[in-house]
Write a structure and sequence with these properties.
With 369 residues, this protein is of the alpha/beta class. The chain is 41% helix and 11% strand. Helix 5 links the parallel strand 3 and strand 4. Bound molecules: [(4R)-2,5-dioxoimidazolidin-4-yl]acetic acid.
């Protein structure tokens, strides 16, 4: 009885969410087998994706499988998603950005051969935005979902304290602490991978101490991706004063030979949320100048808040433009598919227990799990 109720609830919630995506009632009916009349009653109710994710998680805990075909036109951020779910465990893929059908004939094609010890189950990806701008967390989670594989569910979170944007060393200290807070709070949620969505990769090492799941910083991911497609790349970022942070990461990750220059636009991070042509044109101009001055072949966007501008800039510049958020998502999926986990023998072993004082004390207890 419970299953049916939840299944119906999930399907109708998903349909409501699909309504937000201009799908005709007829089409939704054809895909879900739920009578169109039901839709008219639910037309004005929008349900966010997180709700669907939660419902899916509930269903999984009940080990119930539901087949829903969700063909939705993804917003072109970078690349089309690649369906990879095994036919036997057809589960509801999260509504946004997936292109998977269980009823199409190719769905019977066996999934790519992955190591048998790592079955292709849905992957839970935690995207942590180290600043406290909920709008930026949302836009980066959207970009992440637009390239995520069919079975990858993206959960976006930001700290409960700290700066709305990270544009200085002082901001970065709290950004890193915010990452540590969110890692501690998510420690029992079983995320399969984590993305730190700020171009300074704040708190990356600390986060890796708190989980065996792969943790990827968007700067590190972007540098790797750019070095696969060009012998030299240039970074275009926000405030010029934060260029030093990117310079230090280039050295830390060993990209001195491929990173040919780092350029600030002095566009404040939070101004990116406004978007608009004027802003895009300023970044485009800075990128053109960098390509010329550095003789580089690719551009790396030096802020997570630029993720939604990536496709348009690539179109205009005609060179590879790399956004770290989407690059990190695909690398996280690759590491999980390869069954690779963060080492626990050396410096990424859990922090040693000790007394903690003050407001952060709750974050310091029972660290050795
Ligand atoms: C970022 N700051 O990606 C960095 C960009 C920067 O709040 N998110 C931020 O300027 O370092």
């Amino acid at each position: 009885m419970v299953d049916e109720q939840l299944k119906a609830l999930l399907a109708s919630e998903t349909i409501k969410a699909m309504h937000g995506r201009d799908m005709t009632a007829r089409a939704a009916e054809a895909r879900t087998g739920i009578a169109a009349t039901d839709f008219s009653r639910s037309r004005n109710c929008k349900v966010d994706r997180d709700t669907i994710d939660r419902l899916i998680t509930i269903l999984e805990r009940l080990d119930t499988s539901v087949e829903v075909d969700l063909t939705v036109t993804p917003r072109p951020v970078v690349a089309k998603a690649q369906p990879a779910l095994a036919p036997s465990r057809a589960l509801v893929a999260t509504a946004a950005g997936h292109n998977g059908s269980r009823s199409a004939p190719w769905a019977q094609i066996p999934p790519p051969s992955v190591p048998s010890s790592h079955p292709t189950r849905p992957m839970n990806l935690l995207l942590i935005n180290p600043n406290t701008s909920a709008a930026m967390t949302h836009s980066m989670a959207e970009a992440a979902r637009s390239v995520a594989a069919a079975g990858t569910r993206v959960t976006g979170r930001q700290p409960s304290f700290g700066p709305a944007s990270i544009e200085s060393h002082f901001d970065e200290v709290f950004g890193a602490a915010g990452v540590a807070e969110q890692m501690r709070l998510a420690q029992d949620e079983g995320f399969d991978a984590v993305v730190i969505a700020c171009f300074g990769d704040p708190g990356l090492d600390a986060a890796r101490e708190l989980t065996t799941a792969p943790v990827i910083g968007i700067a590190e991911a972007a540098f790797h991706a750019a070095s696969f497609v060009a012998t030299g790349f240039s970074v275009v970022t926000t405030m010029t004063r934060t260029c030093i942070t990117a310079e230090r990461l280039v050295q830390r990750y060993g990209f001195e030979r491929t990173c040919r220059g780092i350029h600030g636009t002095d566009i404040p991070v939070l101004a990116l949320e406004e978007g608009g042509e004027e802003l895009l044109a300023r970044i485009e101009a800075a990128a053109r100048q960098a390509l010329l001055a550095d003789r580089s072949g690719a551009i790396v966007l030096g802020c997570g808040g630029m993720a939604s501008l990536c496709a348009a800039l690539q179109q205009r510049l005609g060179v590879p433009v790399v956004d770290g958020v989407t690059a990190a998502v695909k690398m996280a999926e690759a590491l999980v598919a390869l069954g690779l986990k963060t080492e626990k023998r050396g410096d990424y072993a859990p922090p040693l227990p000790k007394p903690w004082l003050g407001w952060a004390a709750p974050l310091g207890v029972n660290l050795r799990k």
